Amino acid sequence: MYASVITDQIDEDLETALRIARLYGYTHVELHNVFGKSIEECSLKEINTIRTLLNTYELKVSCIASTVFFLCPLMENDKVSLFNPAFHAIEGDVPTHLRYLKNACRIAKKLNCPRVRIFPFRFPDNRPPAYGTQEHIALIMKNVRQAVQIAEEEHVTLVLENCPYSHLPKGHMSIQIVKAIKSDYLKLLWDPANSYRAYKENVPAEYLTFSLEEELHYIYPWIDHIHIKDYAYNAALEKPFQHVAFDMGDIDFMMIFSNLRKYGYENAVSLEAETDYNETLESMKRMQDWVTLSDNT
């Protein structure tokens, strides 16, 4: 496995982020926020600029972290909103998102990146949570099948991320879509912290019994990309899940990295620290140490 980092987690200025990533010994980066927009919105001229910068700093792209199907209403009357204004995301209906996906796939090929991130639809603001219902899964699957058709035409792999703000917040839930569609061009982006963070009162009971280790064991054959961040839970706070530097919170990364090594994982573990600048730099250093340790153990 190898370490990657989402550039806007370091700095919103792409060149600054690339320079720091290289300084910290990274060979790969992941692209989401660039030039004040989400990566799938970029023009050919902007992508050529990105390619020049990547070549300058001798960096490769592990994932195009698009926001396809995030701010996209799953049902006709759904209202979806952005939880964080610093997280750039496209909006619009399914056809709009599919057009952006085609651009994301073409961007991936221009940057020699094998995968594009998509989401299992943001949960709406205007109806009560009911995660993972069969009706929702059927609708998500219908739309993801259209996305996969584009991916197959463009020969780019889609990675579906389990997201706590989506209909399928746990890896054990989002894997249903991947398994059912059965395409070589659809895999899983596993974020263990997102699984941990999922609102337990909104998750069906059958998914609450799995530990992160059990989840990893079950979903591993379909994992193509991994996001890494950490949380510390404090019930006394209004927002009890607090972002902390990598390996300073509740997630058992010793278990995760040892199992990934045991299973023979060869792709990226990509840092999405969601912390302040100094903690992100510390997380970058610490994760490089973990990856090196895993490779040498």
From TrEMBL:
It comes from the Bacteria. InterPro entries: IolE/XylAMocC-like, Xyl_isomerase-like_sf, Xyl_isomerase-like_TIM-brl. Residues 19-285 form the Xylose isomerase-like TIM barrel domain. This is Xylose isomerase-like TIM barrel domain-containing protein. It comes from [Clostridium] innocuum 2959.
